[in-house]
């Protein structure tokens, strides 16, 4: 058998090649290792957005959220989530929560309002960190970042659904269950969804029509949603609640409309096709504009 090319090289050259090859192999291995950078959350900020492109946290100077008392028609969900979040902020046991149901009824607003409430009422309020649903596969990385922080952290995903179940399921399970290590004591996860089991409707229809075992996708998502300790349902408000929400806004912003504002508000809801907290707020914004005023939280 012919000698290899390396047999013809000087011994010191062969040694250098081996050393360089080893260094390249170690560098390649390091580049393929998941990185969980140690992050010191800015003490001057209380809310952040996770940027998957940079694997960093962007501070949010101001979170727009109404006072907790203005969220009407969702009393049970509001009190349950508030109690759970207070326990978490005080270092006690608390559950991950899924807020699901009717659009425009304050699911994401409730999370933000409770966070703002705790900033004023507790000595050690948690940081609120939002992750976009398209970045849900990066949850394990984010989890590794925040578990090293001294502050309690609420991870929040608005309008959660699974466009890539294989990746997203695994990522979310790492937060809900935490693998072998368990969920870090300083982390809790809140999510909102228009559907209780979070699957897009077209995915459910496709699985039912073409799947070998049509119920498997549904069973898998139900099993995942079962891992949320709290399920909080939100339902459309009735006419009385809708008008009460608007009246609360009028008092807070000191707006003085004509006596016919109720009829105008009901007509506004008819043009939108629903009565909800969002519809009520949109009416108040329009009314404030008509009165030559500006309202914001």
Could you characterize what this model shows?
The protein has 2 domains: 188 residues, Rossmann fold, CATH 3.40.50.300; 52 residues. 44% of the residues lie in helices and 12% in strands. The protein has a 7-stranded mixed beta sheet with strand order 2-1-4-5-6-3-7. Strand 4, helix 4 and strand 5 form a beta-alpha-beta unit. The longest helix has 21 residues. About 8% of the residues have low confidence.
Helix content: 40-55%
Strand content: 5-15%
State the end-to-end distance.
82 Å
Structure summary, number of beta strands: 7
In the CATH classification, which architecture of the largest domain applies?
3-Layer(aba) Sandwich
* Whole-number tally of structural domains: 2
Q: What name does CATH use for the topology of the largest domain?
A: Rossmann fold
Tell me about the largest β-sheet: 7 strands, mixed
Poorly predicted residue ranges = 30-39, 201-213
**SSE string, helix = H, strand = E?**
HEEHEHEHEHEHHEHHH
Biggest sheet: strand arrangement = 2-1-4-5-6-3-7
Please give the radius of gyration in angstroms. 26 Å
Tally of helical segments: 10
CATH superfamily of the largest domain: P-loop containing nucleotide triphosphate hydrolases
Helices, strands, pairings?
Blueprint: H1 11-31, E1 47-51, E2 56-59, H2 75-89, E3 97-101, H3 107-121, E4 127-130, H4 139-146, E5 153-157, H5 165-176, E6 187-193, H6 201-210, H7 216-225, E7 230-234, H8 239-252, H9 261-272, H10 277-290
Helix pairs in contact: 2-3, 8-10
């Amino acid at each position: 058998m012919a000698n290899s090319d390396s047999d013809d090289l000087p011994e010191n050259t062969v040694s250098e090649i081996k050393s360089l090859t080893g260094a390249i192999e170690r560098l390649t291995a390091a580049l393929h290792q998941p990185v969980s950078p140690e992050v010191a959350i800015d003490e001057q900020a209380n809310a952040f957005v996770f940027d998957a492109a940079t694997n960093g946290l962007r501070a949010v100077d101001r979170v727009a959220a109404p006072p907790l008392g203005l969220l009407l028609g969702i009393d049970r969900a509001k009190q349950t989530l508030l109690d759970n979040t207070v326990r978490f902020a005080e270092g006690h046991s608390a559950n991950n929560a899924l807020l699901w149901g009717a659009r425009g009824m304050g699911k994401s607003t409730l999370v933000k309002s409770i966070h703002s409430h705790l900033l004023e009422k507790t000595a050690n309020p948690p940081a609120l960190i939002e992750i976009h649903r398209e970045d849900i596969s990066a949850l394990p990385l984010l989890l590794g970042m925040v578990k090293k922080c001294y502050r309690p952290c609420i991870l929040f995903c608005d309008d959660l659904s699974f466009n890539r179940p294989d990746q997203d399921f695994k990522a979310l399970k790492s937060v809900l269950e935490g693998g072998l290590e368990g969920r870090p004591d300083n982390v809790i996860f809140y999510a909102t969804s228009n559907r209780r089991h979070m699957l897009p409707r077209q995915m459910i229809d496709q699985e039912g029509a073409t799947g070998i075992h049509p119920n498997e996708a549904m069973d898998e998502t139900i099993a995942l949603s079962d891992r949320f300790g709290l399920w909080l349902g939100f339902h459309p408000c009735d006419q009385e609640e809708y008008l009460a929400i608007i009246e609360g806004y009028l008092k807070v912003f000191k707006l003085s409309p004509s006596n016919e504002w109720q009829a105008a508000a009901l007509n506004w809801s008819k043009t939108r096709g629903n009565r909800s907290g969002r519809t009520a707020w949109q009416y108040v914004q329009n009314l404030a504009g008509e009165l030559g005023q500006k309202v914001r939280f």
